[in-house]
User: Which sequence fits this backbone?
């Protein structure tokens, strides 16, 4: 229950985004940069170090490489998939929003694993982790909602996509209860995989587009995303 509430905080971020009016180039640039900063910081400050703790450097690197190559494969395939395309929807921003949601979902899965492991160690520690996850899931939801809103997607669809990404947290928690005592190596690979996927998405989609909109605003957004996530990751510990 607690992990579900923490995960669905991404939906709160999406709802907050819905209150914005028309998004200008500087605002869009800052928000895209902010999402990129969050993804890079989560990968480097959180997922990779924890992957090493659960396994080894080699396992973390293998998972990271698998995440990069999987997203490279998806990137080559998604432009040819039109099942999500709606009339009046900007395809590039829609694809970007789906990619961000995928990256957040992949991150939320091992994050949920960590939450499950925390509850196994001590319920009070698990509650602290759940609170920290909820707090930094809100800006992640904003990052998902921003390009989807720019694409012309309907508000309900945007909130639903953000919530679906967040639901990978309780899914990871359930897996954590089952797998933590069986295979810490699996957790290490999962964290490395999520880190690689998130770095790829930030580099391939978010940073180029944020700089195309407004370079200085992009830099500010990236810096803020990294700093806020850095503080959030320290709250997790």
Assistant:
């Amino acid at each position: 229950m607690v992990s579900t509430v923490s995960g669905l905080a991404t939906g709160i971020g999406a709802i907050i985004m819905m209150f914005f009016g028309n998004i200008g180039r500087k605002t869009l640039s800052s928000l895209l940069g902010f999402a990129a900063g969050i993804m890079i910081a989560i990968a480097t400050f959180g997922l990779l170090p924890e992957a090493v703790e659960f396994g080894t450097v080699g396992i973390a690197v293998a998972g990271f490489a698998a995440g990069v190559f999987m997203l490279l494969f998806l990137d080559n395939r998604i432009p040819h998939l039109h099942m999500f395309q709606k009339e009046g929807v900007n395809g590039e921003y829609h694809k970007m929003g789906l990619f961000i949601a995928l990256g957040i979902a992949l991150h939320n899965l091992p994050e949920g694993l960590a939450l499950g492991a925390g509850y196994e160690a001590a319920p009070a520690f698990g509650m602290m982790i759940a609170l920290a996850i909820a707090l930094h899931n809100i800006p992640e939801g904003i990052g998902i909602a921003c390009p989807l809103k720019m694409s012309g997607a309907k508000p309900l669809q945007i909130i639903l996509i953000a919530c679906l990404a967040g639901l990978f947290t309780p899914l990871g928690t359930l897996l954590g209860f089952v797998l933590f005592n069986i295979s810490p190596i699996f957790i290490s690979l999962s964290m490395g995989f999520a880190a690689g996927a998130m770095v790829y998405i930030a580099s391939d989609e978010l940073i180029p587009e944020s700089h195309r909109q407004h370079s200085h605003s992009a830099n500010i957004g990236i810096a803020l995303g990294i700093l806020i996530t850095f503080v959030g990751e320290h709250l997790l510990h």
